[in-house]
Amino acid sequence: MESAFQHLAKIAKPSDLHKMSDKELRELATEVRQAILQKVSKTGGHLSSNLGTVELTVALYAAYEIPPDKVVWDTGHQAYAHKLLTGRLDRFDTLRKHKGLSGFLRRQEHELDSFGAGHAGTAISAALGFAIARDKLGGTERVLAITGDAAIASGMSWEALNHAGAMGTDLTVVLNDNRMSIAPNVGALTNYLATLRSRPWLQNWAAAAKDVVVRMPDPIGKVAAGLRHGITHYLAPSNTGTIFEEIGWEYIGPMDGHDLQVLLEVFRNVRELKGPVFVHALTVKGKGYDVAEEDARKWHGVIPFDLEANDMVKAAGPITYTKAFGDAAVECAEADPTIVAITAAMPDGTGLDAFARQIPDRFYDTGIAEQHAVTFAAGLAAGGMKPFCAIYSTFLQRAFDQVLHDVCIQNLPVRFFLDRAGLVGDDGPTHHGAFDLSYLTPIPNVVVLSPRDTTELREMVRWMARFDEHPSAVRYPRGSSDDRLPEARTAIQLGCAEVLRTGSDVTLAAVGSMVSAAWEAAAILEQEGIEATVVNARFIKPLDVGTIEKSVRQTGRIVTIEENVRAGGYGQQVVDALAAALPGGFRHAVLTLPDEFIEHGSQPILRSECGLSAQGIVGAARRLVAGSLTSTP
Ligand SMILES: Cc1ncc(C[n+]2csc(CCOP(=O)(O)OP(=O)(O)O)c2C)c(N)n1
User: Fold this and answer.
1) How much is the pTM?
2) Catalytic residue list contains 285
């Protein structure tokens, strides 16, 4: 197949594009799009965003000197063309696979991945940092940030636009405006960009410039002041400038982000401009692949699919945690008109899409604005509503202070739903939910839960809907639960764990996703004559010290298991509590994620590498019983 990529196969670095004619560059763009389609249809990954950035990337890399010029990609999920133009074609089949290429940009992966990402809204801040560092160190390279129309609405992007607009240093932001987040984009800025989009499109930089000079009352003066002013105002038919110009940026556009000729012309000129420059390119998410253009939402993140049949069939499987939460949220909200749902640009990912369809007047999508979403929820709670705030574990990291300062200090009963807690798999370290127990449980007032399976998640959602005394948060993993666990259930009660079986040799106390592994481990241990008690923690805060203490008084040994780092996690808290309660000592093993960023790979591979599997638990229990693990005190 690779031989089909005549031009692309010869590209080892962006400067190789400088030797190509504009016609060859157009052919190269076609090959890049083909390569993305062919490869991603086999590996899965982010498809439609990447199909939309092909011409932008080819034009940028042909027009600029990279290196030393630097391009910072926001989020990094749309930078596959960048990977292909920086010599990674031969490794592209390993995309998102364990030990293969990352689906995002990573400084550790390639020297031209100038800044790593995975979370949205960071590019303009980082690019400004590069630009100021260049100024301080006497460099001359150009710096660009490429950001999306959803990412640019995030608070950080505006903080950076505000800062850079006043600094005045040489920095170019390219807005890749495809009108889509993962779902259709939302917010007033989206409407504003639509009004800019309705202005005459920039088709030909040279002609536009000539025209401006002719039309200007004082062309010499204007030219001396900077030709770019003329072009900008020429393209803004009214006398008012754009919002970007008002805060210190030269606005250039809008232009067709798929017309390679226009892009080449514009970037070859823009690279000579001084100061903060804002280029507005209009693109189509899924460009060049009909089904993805028609339904970019479906084709945003794909599993391997049939490129011939243009079909992506997701195997029917057990209900996911996401769906279980979404269904339970709708059920609760139908019964209680004070329940409102909030997502930060993730209606589908969080399962709130059903809520949005069925109860649209109580559904709020803030855009990529987790901090605002949390404080908005706090205000709703203070005003008498019951906010269901659904944010992935990894993205709630961004709103730590809002959780602490706006929700918890005021003890407002916001309900948080943290999907993707623990190891998420192919998205890797930027997306693993490895820290939520650590960042939530030290905060006073908040109640933290985790379900053993999807049925228990529904119960917890219902319980949280009724629980008004404190803020509460439930964390649950990506995917589905297995159904090996006993069906018999006890009712959820604040601060109470569930004992699934009792044995006198060792206590296995597990959090959420790890309960089924503990259950399986107990069965294996039983074959070896080791009798285990299995505790489903349910509450990580408040901790059910009583139940665990009672069990460990009998067994003298405990293995705790959780998909969270050790510091501030469940196991550490259990050991601290038991150390106070059992001065005579006990043996323990605390199984957690390691104190390192975990790479991408499938969930089973990663869990097993971290020792968070039935076999890992069995090994720890055996060592405890053999007396070779830590004793406290
Ligand atoms: C802080 C944060 N919140 C949510 C996400 C999930 N997310 C990934 S891509 C995306 C949409 C990005 O849209 P846009 O910036 O317009 O880029 P496009 O994919 O359209 O090119 C979202 C919400 C994220 N990566 N980071």
Assistant:
1) 0.94
2) yes
